[in-house]
Protein: Tyrosine-type recombinase/integrase
Organism: Nostoc favosum CHAB5714
Amino acid sequence: MTTTLAQVATAFLSRQGLAASTVKSYEQTLLSLLKWHGSLPIELIDRQLLKDYLAGLDDLRYTTHNRHQAIISALFNFAVESGYIQSNPASRLSRRKPEKERGEHKSDEIIRYLTSQELDILYDLLKKSNARLETIVRLLHRSGARIGELLSRLVSADFSVSYEAVAADWREVIDQSEKLKGIRLHDLRHTFATERVGLMGIEELRALMGHENIQTTLRYQKVTSARAEIVAKSALENLTKSI
């Protein structure tokens, strides 16, 4: 009797001991895979099919993409352990790396955020030159979303704009000011997080930012502490000079 991928996935999700939130998360992750390949016999799901499927998930940020891959690999590990197949076709597949042009960065990179002065300059330039980009920038700055996530939501809302078009508009605006050169769209996300350190608990900020690792969130706490130290030293120097 042939066992389909969908049947194995059902058994995988029905295991005892899984929290309801975990089951829901796994279901959402596997939904697309099952939509395309759920009716195939489990033994026909090979390495190349999974590579092609994962390559098609180009709208996901790299951390979410890697999480999808990890859950798919866990599904096929379960299939091996349950005797449905002999080996895991997802085993040792290369994981997608962060793409800087899409605003993706590893957690150990230096945080670059916009100061209040830089934000004033930026918004002033946007008001004078690009209303569409101003709207996108305000959404990024106020939500902390990644540019890829935001553009995906805009497409769902029938407001389609490509990353390339937004990036070109961004470069045109920031090149108008020496103080803004080198600033990236992704730095608006860093700015959002840095502004909220101290206004909420670190776990709340972690949830808001969607970080899987608390160490990623703690970077913003370190940045804010360093910034406060610089401001304090500057104030002390000014006070000393006035005495």
